[in-house]
Write a structure and sequence with these properties.
2 helices; mainly alpha; 91% helix
Length: 65
């Protein structure tokens, strides 16, 4: 379970860094900003996906005991 939580935190960190990069490069390089915006969206979706499955697995584990 710990690996699911760690990977979730990593995805949130990637999303935050990508959003900051979007704001920093929006005026100078719009194409690069769109790429980082895509990374941010994918990272947020993956973090939410990981959270959903982490909660699902923990509830199944509690039901078995």
């Amino acid at each position: 379970m710990k690996s699911y939580k760690i990977s979730e935190v990593i995805y949130w960190c990637i999303a935050i860094v990508s959003i900051v990069e979007v704001f920093l490069t929006w005026d100078s390089n719009r194409k690069r900003a769109y790429i980082f915006f895509g990374f941010a969206i994918i990272s947020i979706l993956m973090a939410l996906f990981r959270r959903y499955y982490r909660n699902k697995f923990s509830s199944q584990k509690k039901n078995r005991k």
